[in-house]
Amino acid sequence: MHQVEIATTQETLLDSPEMTLNMGPQHPSTHGVLRVVLKLDGETVIDLDCDIGYLHRGMEKIAENRMFTMIAPYWDRLDYIAAVSNGLVWVETVEQMMGLEVPKRAHYLRTILTELNRIASHLLWLATHALDIGAVTVLLWALREREEILKIFERQFGARLTCHAWRVGGMPNDAYDDFNKDVRQFVNNFPTRLDEYETVLSENRIWLSRTVGIGVISGPEAIAIGLSGPALRGSGVAWDVRKSRPYAAYADMDFDIPVGENGDTYDRYLVRLEEMRQSRRIIDQALENLPDGPVNAKLPKIVKLPVGDYYHSIEAPKGEIGCYLVSDGSAQPYRVRVRPPSFVNLQALRQMCIGHLVADVVAIIGTLDIVLGEIDR
Amino acid sequence: MLLLAPINFLDEFLLRFFSAQTVNFIVWPLIQIGLVVTLVALWVAYATYLERKISAFMQARLGPMRVGLWGLLQPIADGIKLLAKEDFIPDKADRWIFFFAPYIAVASSFIVFSVVPFGPDWAVIADVNIGLLLVLAVSSVGVLALILAGWSSNSKYALLGGLRSSAQMVSYEVSMGLSLIGALMFARTLSLSGIIGAQGSDTIWYVLYQPAGFIIFLISGIAENNRAPFDLPEAESELVAGFHTEYSGMRWSLFFMAEYAAMVVVSAVAATVFLGGWYFPFVNRLDSINHNLFVAVSLLIFLTKCAIILYVYFWLRWTLPRFRYDQLMDIGWKWLIPSALINIVLTAIAVFVVQALDGWKGMKTIEAMNMGLNLTATGKAIMIAFGIVGLFITGALLSRINWRSRDFNLRTQRRNIKLVNVPQGKPAVQTN
């Protein structure tokens, strides 16, 4: 709607030579080392091109030379904001390919911790997205909440950011003693804090004028590009791996999927905020019904997978993260391929940005919630 | 009171060496200039400290705490750090313009202090009879510095920042100047001391007569100073640092000083024109007790008013997101300039009505006209009523002008997201 408006005023402007602006890889708002080459007419974007690969570490190749159980820590470094979810996709792929039955308690703990990670990731998104649009205070408020989650992670996994959370067949150790209390405390405090962020942003005129109608992408277009996660749900498509192919303990949980209408930045913002509320709901339920029992299944000394290939995906905070694993029957994968949500979501950037201003490019990169570690692998 | 005695003593001391004229027109102004420049520079340094502290408290943290007690020496440490830093000039930059742009910025914002009436009598350097005009004229030179800095850096980010700032400052200067005209109709003078005197003899602050003017002035003042939410020229998340991307060390800090000094200027003008400057009810009774004490207290009142407006600046900066460039232009041209024009018309009508009512059916609205427009209680009530009604009329006319613009009814455009409970194990569901 807004794009058309700009396009018509464009023709009435005097002819001006286009300018190429190189945004990144060192730029405060490209969320890492993304390089965007913008073609500008004045400040209007007429074309853009993404240059990625500055953070390429060859994760998939490295994985070919590691035992199956050794690969999970590398996966933590893909989307370092959501290390817990990323580790889960690897261990679940291996478990499902070898047909391993994981204890129920481990499934529940996995659900709680990945949902906590989702909240942490969304909080970091909120912080940086608001910062990109100029609301600095939200950054520190959101990071304050994220800190509470990171404290739980630190006590549970021994690390805050890249926590090697899971082992094939379950968890390295059971939940620590005060786990229930800590998580319960967070769950109880969180809604009021979330409302606080909403009072600063959701009704704010400037926030609305910066996000409503910016970076619009329709449902069919989003599906065609292959968007997933909040970026897809913001466009009105109710697709969530947690619902369509339940993993861990999600089949037992009762939760809703927030869906936007117009597929603009504001819808995606609302969807993510609501997702945090739903995540809180899931954690609440899982904590309520947390079963007792072991957290680890029996594993053979050396994990070997049957010959063949397998694809498994889970709903990471950024979207569907998938893992395609080809095994030749040895103790190491023959080939691994990750389907990173950020990489696919980034493909929508060009379509979303054209016709908007430079300031909107920053807002749209923020709303796609990309992490370069995952894009470049 | 004893503390204030040296001023008279100093005066007598100076008269021994120079003639009375030299003392009055050369020596005293030089002392005043030295004091003002030093104090303003110090104030600018501590404004950064205050800003960091205030933002820290808003963001649930402590702010600078390490250098000195509560981090009180932080600005000095920062200053030393900036002085010691390399003064880097890019290879492809236009050296001389790059070199001089910061000085233009600092000079244009410091020169304005020559006419700012910090207090009565000796607390003002030069009481020029076109003071307000001088403030507007000199502070608009500041835009030149930003354009030159952006242009000479030979960097695209700096260039975009410079272009944005030129467009922004040029368009907001218009509404800034227009918003002051209403108050001038009451004061009937452009001298800043005269405006304060008029408010003093009318025993009122013009913000009561001119609520719309005050609001317009504050908004366009913030935009004129490139402060958030209008800090587009240096929007760090888009343009890295805008026009001063390539600057470093002391030259960068000169821009910083200029920005904070310009903030003080705008708050000083707002305090002078709309909040009565150093005038505060009943304080002038001190004059009969001790003149110097009266001046000092007035000075303090003036600084307090400035500080309150500065706090509003900080408050807004750390609360609101940033506007986009086209939205900023929209606000300038579609909202502020029309409302400033409407305000002028309404004020003129109000002044005319009040004057016409004087003597009508024995009504008395005007007390005196020798120092601004002095109204009786009835006249004041009518004028304040006009001011408040004017706010509504301005609002109604503005919404008439802007009702078709996209950003006008954003709240109604606000949607709620739907919550869907998809049956498990089903493929993607298209909802719209």
The major beta sheet of chain A can be summarized as:
3 strands, antiparallel
**What is the structural class of chain A?**
alpha+beta
Total number of domains of chain A? 1
Query: What is the residue-averaged pLDDT of chain A?
Result: 85
What is the name of the CATH architecture of chain A?
Answer: Orthogonal Bundle
Which CATH top level class of chain A fits? Mainly Alpha
The CA-CA distance between the termini of chain A, in Å, is 36 Å
Number of helices of chain A: 16
Kindly report the spatial arrangement of strands forming the biggest sheet of chain A.
Answer: 1-2-3
CATH domain fold name of chain A:
Cytochrome-c3 Hydrogenase, chain B
Apparent shape of chain B: globular
Number of domains of chain B: 1
Number of helices of chain B: 16
Q: What overall form of chain A do the CA principal axes indicate?
A: globular
Provide the β-strand percentage band of chain A. Answer: 5-15%
Compact overview of the structure:
Helix content of chain A is 49%, strand content 13%. Chain A is of the alpha+beta class and 377 residues long.
Task: Write up what this structure looks like.
The complex is a heterodimer of chains A (377) and B (432). Chain A is of the alpha+beta class and 377 residues long. Chain A contains 16 helices and eight strands. Chain A has a three-stranded antiparallel sheet with strand order 1-2-3. In chain A, a hairpin with a 2-residue loop joins strand 6 (308-316) and strand 7 (319-327). The termini of chain B are far apart. Chain B has a two-stranded antiparallel sheet with strand order 1-2. The mean pLDDT of chain B is 81. Chain B has helices spanning 6-17, 20-58, 74-84, 95-111, 131-152, 156-187, 192-202, 206-209, 211-224, 236-239, 249-274, 286-289, 291-317, 325-357, 377-402, 410-413, and strands at residues 366-368, 374-375, 418-420, 429-430. Chain B is globular, with a radius of gyration of 25 Å. By secondary structure, chain B is mainly α. Helix content of chain B is 66%, strand content 2%. Classes of the chains: A alpha+beta (377), B mainly alpha (432). At the A-B interface, strand 1, helix 5, helix 6, helix 8 and strand 4 of A face helix 6, helix 10, helix 14, helix 16 and strand 3 of B. Strand 5 (257-259) of chain A pairs antiparallel with strand 3 (418-420) of chain B, so a sheet runs across the interface.
